[in-house]
Amino acid sequence: MLGGDLVAVWEVALSDGVHRIEFAHGTTTGKRVVQINGKEVVRRDWMFKLVGKETFTVGEASTKATINIEAISGFAYEYSLDVDGKNLQKFTADRAKTTKTWELQVDGADCRVVLEKDTMDVWCNGRKMDTTGEFADDGTETHFVVGEHDCCIKAASSGKKKSGIVHYFVLDGEKVPGSTQ
Q1: What is the pLDDT of residues 106-162, one digit of tens each?
Q2: DSSP letter string over 56-120?
Q3: Residue 143 exposed, middle or buried by CB count within 10 Å (0-12, 13-18, 19+)
Q4: What is the greatest pairwise CA distance in the chain?
Q5: Which pLDDT score, from 0 to 100, does residue 76 have?
Q6: 50 near 77, Cβ under 8 Å?
Q7: For residue 2, what pLDDT band results from cuts at 50, 70 and 90?
């Protein structure tokens, strides 16, 4: 329970889902608490040093995250989050280049599919999927199954140097609208 000491909240999108990180900093009690998706992962009571860092891991891949606590004046503090060694803004921008995410409905339920372009790993609702890759005439295809549905992520050249490769999501043989890179 974070109580009235909650000072910062961040949302971090990883391949296995979007994680809500909450940080409580009791400046009078010396307490530091980190929660991820409502689960407490760090608790330190009676810390006499009010500035510093709290390091922990996030998600299935145990991605390293660090909360930086800095004094800005008197008893005012500034809090920032680094993920995988980068500030959150840079980490998010880099992830946008190396992943592609689709959010859609499958059998009436929300489904979040993430393609990691550098490894070609596919995640669906927080689970790494078993995939089969193959070359096709117009690029590559990565096949996997969600429930009873055949899924495929097709990668093909856009024909434009700036755009590079575009990715399409295909569900049961039908291209999902708006699923291009």
Answers
A1: 888 888 999 999 999 999 998 999 999 999 888 899 999 998 999 999 998 888 877
A2: EEETTTTEEEEEEEEEEETTEEEEEEEETTEEHHHHHHHHHHHEEEEEEEETTEEEEEEEETTTT
A3: middle
A4: 65
A5: 86
A6: yes
A7: low
| Residue 147 structure tokens | 């429930």
Sheet holding 17-26, edge to edge: 6-14, 17-26, 31-36, 39-44
Label the pairing between strands 121-124 and 6-14.
Answer: unpaired
Half-sphere exposure of 90 (CA within 13 A, CB side): 8
How many whole angstroms separate alpha carbon 9 and alpha carbon 128?
A: 27
Cα separation, 164 vs 150, whole angstroms: 26
> Among residues 152, 151, 156, 126, which one has the least CA distance to residue 139?
156
**Bigger pLDDT: 79 vs 176:** 79
| pLDDT tens track for 4-44 | 789 999 999 999 999 999 999 887 777 899 999 999 999 98
Q: What is the token pair recorded at 97?
A: 């280049």
- CA triple 100-102-108, angle to 5 deg: 165
